[in-house]
Amino acid sequence: MAQQDTDQQHTGVLPVDDEGFVIDTEDCEERETAWRERGTSRPITVVGNPVLHKECRDVTDFGDDLQQLVADMFASQRTAEGVGLAANQIGVDLKVFVYDCQDDEGRRHVGVVCNPRLVDLPADKRRLDDNNEGCLSVPTAYAPLARPDYAEVTGQDEKGNAIKVRGTGYFARCLQHETDHLYGYLYIDRLSKRERKDALRQMAENEPRYPVVAND
């Protein structure tokens, strides 16, 4: 997809393509490193923590506190070796997620989305992918979950500019998964009772590879 002509003005943090979607595949290593090196890694909240099970508050202040939160989220994501992280996964009740995720073609995507909303797709774009899904907040557990293999999200970047993000394959799953988090849903909430029970059993039987917040 072609980038907009350089003489076209775009006020967002990332450039956009000719359909208005952010180009989040350029300078990924530099951008992720710059965020992560300013941040402090925090432990991950796990299923059962109340902050994970309710809709988060909208981001309305795009100042220094949000910038530090985003930096901490990138640092936490790297420590946990994740591909996406929502703010409530480090205990913060705000609608923001970060991602560092490859799509099925091997393209790396790095970005920030505040106040995300999934676009309701027409039927011809609803091809389902039923691959395994996991979650940093349900450590060591995996289960197959059917989701559309293409996703579009609207929202704002870390400076408050309106953005659109789209992804295919694994990256589409990431966009849907992280947006779900901010509305109080874990992927295991979309499983059958038997599958959910199995996922929680996997979690109970294994040790997470990163620091987590124990539920009281």
From TrEMBL:
Keywords: Hydrolase, Iron, Metal-binding, Protein biosynthesis. Binds 1 Fe(2+) ion. InterPro entries: Peptide_deformylase, Peptide_deformylase_sf. CDD domains: Pep_deformylase. GO terms for molecular function: peptide deformylase activity. It comes from the Bacteria. Its EC number is 3.5.1.88. Its cofactor is Fe(2+). It catalyses: N-terminal N-formyl-L-methionyl-[peptide] + H2O = N-terminal L-methionyl-[peptide] + formate. The active site is at E178. It holds the Pfam family Pep_deformylase. Fe cation binds at C135, H177, H181. Removes the formyl group from the N-terminal Met of newly synthesized proteins. Requires at least a dipeptide for an efficient rate of reaction. N-terminal L-methionine is a prerequisite for activity but the enzyme has broad specificity at other positions. Belongs to the polypeptide deformylase family. HAMAP family: Pep_deformylase. This is Peptide deformylase.
